[in-house]
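Human: You know discrete backbone vocabularies at least as well as I do. Show me how you would write down a chain together with its backbone fold. No explanation is needed for now; the record alone will do.

Assistant:
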Amino acid sequence: DLCRLILALSFQATYIHHKWEPIRWTNTSLLVKCSALKDLFFRGNQHHGLIPRDIGIHGHIRGFSLGHNFLQTIEPRDWDFLTSLTNCSNLTILDLEQNNLEGVMPVTIANLSTELYWLTIGRNKIAGTIPAGLGKFQKLRKVILADSLFTGTLPLDIGQIPSLQFLHLSHNIFYGQIPQSLGNLTKLTTLDLSHNSFSGGIP
């Protein structure tokens, strides 16, 4: 299709914004050959299949937005693309929301770049707890984990992210008390914890 033709002609692309014919993604992709690729925005299409596991091998990606597609994870190894993205020291955007991603969120997400300021992975079937170490992402502004299968208590260090403005964790299976540390988020404008199993007083 047209996108594949463009990629074949120029493997040194630095920016790809795609809204043409849907691509079936596989673990091997022409995009992996784009050694200078910095921004990959395929949000709001009809792409399906797996996210290429070596997509971040060259270490240059800053913006990675594949939200609102039909991409999937079937086996634990299908999450290997996250390990690949840990090579990208300037990654600022990770947008995977509203796909068909399922399984337990790998702990490797805590090894992503500390430059990250946009993390949207909600509206999937991702399970497990929020990995420890979220507080190290001091530049995070927006976190959306809503409409998923996350469980457990909220980590205390979630209140140690001074830049956080938008925290949306609704429609999950979180429980326990709401951390007092959320009161430290002086830039927070939107907090949505609805439709979980939180208990105790409101901090």
Residues 1-15 have pLDDT under 50 and may be disordered.
